[in-house]
Amino acid sequence: MANRLSREDPIQRTYYDPIEKSEKYLGRIFWASVVLSLSILLCDKAEFPRIYNALQILFCVAVILLFALDMFVRLYLKPRADDMRLKDFLSHAYGIALNHDQTQAYYNNNETVPIRKLAAQLLENAMHSKSTVLEMAKNTRTITLLYVLIFVAIAVNRSTNLEMISIAAQAIFGQHIVSTLLRIEWTRIRYERVYEDMYNLFLHNPIIETFEIRTIEGLTKYETTKANGGVLLSSKIFNSNNEEVSKEWERLKLTLSIL
């Protein structure tokens, strides 16, 4: 995770970029389905039967596409990308190439003992991840608050019918707004815990057996956070923060006597 000029990350390009593109399409399809729901509600079936039927068909297509693309991302693209990232992580820690396309200047330490190298990589990962997801959380909080305020305004308006409130509730509290914020916040807390655990591990530097088991525990927590949270870290925010966080990492290595 060095500066952007020297860092090479074929795994991001090959495996994670398709996920980012797919999630953008998921967002567009989701909002299209919301618009279609509102259009169906506002369309007079008796006066415009053809338009009403067309809207119903389009809504069904949107729902099916949303489901299919979401399953494709969750069950294929995301696990595949995470598997390749973990292979690369272990390859650098143990000096054994488990994958062909390996990152360059992605992990920055000169530890020679594999378990210490793995722990240092995990600490660096956690530092970058918590920084990235914190910025994501800040942005998502603002957007979510705006949508919740809009929902409240709609709900308290006596002239708003129940169908409109129901559609708004589905949009706000469905998979793409409030739940996204909750998953991001949960992921942020978990990454911060991994960072603190690994920081304290290097700070206290226990006997090798304890060091090893704590490192494996930290790696497990980090990987289960990625899997259960389902939050894809923003590459744009990562790259924006990379230089500053990398400098912080160099200072942290001196503090914790990491090679």
Structure description:
This protein has 259 residues and is mainly α. The chain has helices at residues 10-42, 49-94, 114-156, 162-172, 178-204, 208-229, 235-256. Helix 3 (114-156) packs parallel to helix 6 (208-229). The chain is elongated. The protein starts with 9 loop residues before the first helix and ends with a helix. Mean pLDDT is 89; it is low at 1-5.
Question: How would you describe this structure in keywords?
Answer:
elongated, 79% helix, disordered N terminus, 259 residues, single chain, mainly alpha
Q: Can you lay out the helices and strands and say which pair or pack?
A:
Layout: H1 10-42, H2 49-94, H3 114-156, H4 162-172, H5 178-204, H6 208-229, H7 235-256
Helix pairs in contact: 1-2, 1-4, 2-3, 3-4, 3-5, 3-6, 3-7, 5-6
